[in-house]
Write a structure and sequence with these properties.
Shape: elongated
Mean pLDDT: 80
Strand content: 5-15%
Helix content: 55-70%
Distance between the termini: 104 Å
Order of helices and strands: HEEEHHH
Largest sheet: 3 strands, antiparallel
Length: 129
């Protein structure tokens, strides 16, 4: 009985040790939000990954004055243009941004902000007259 227990313990210990042994990665496949890592011993590990998203959440702020809103919009446009330059400087991010239409989205936000600036400037001009 003791010999049987010893054999079982050795078998279980060997299996645990073999599973903890570092494995050499053969291939990594990313498909959608699934990452599959295949090892040279034939095993594989599948995990769900969260991919980076390039989205800007636009919120409507309340301003005390039109001048404050103008300053905010000008800073917002500058920040977006800086972010665009940063993304363009990294080839991987640049390619992903092009594929996802991120540049078009950012240029749309810039265009909307510039249109709002023109509206406010017209409004301020009409109040001065």
């Amino acid at each position: 009985m003791q010999k049987l227990m010893l054999v079982i313990a050795l078998f279980v210990g060997a299996n645990i040790w073999a599973q903890n042994e570092s494995k050499e990665i053969d291939t990594v496949i990313i498909s959608g939000n699934q990452k599959t890592t295949k090892y040279t011993d034939g095993s594989q590990y599948i995990e769900i990954i969260k991919q980076p998203t390039y989205q800007t959440i636009k919120t409507q702020k309340k301003f005390e004055s039109k001048q404050q809103e103008l300053a905010h919009l000008r800073k917002y446009i500058n920040d977006l243009e800086t972010k665009i330059k940063h993304v363009k400087s990294n080839p991987e991010e640049d390619q992903l941004a092009k594929e996802k239409g991120w540049y078009d989205q950012m240029n749309g936000y810039i265009g909307q902000s510039k249109a709002r600036i023109k509206e406010i400037e017209k409004l301020l001009e009409s109040k001065e007259k």
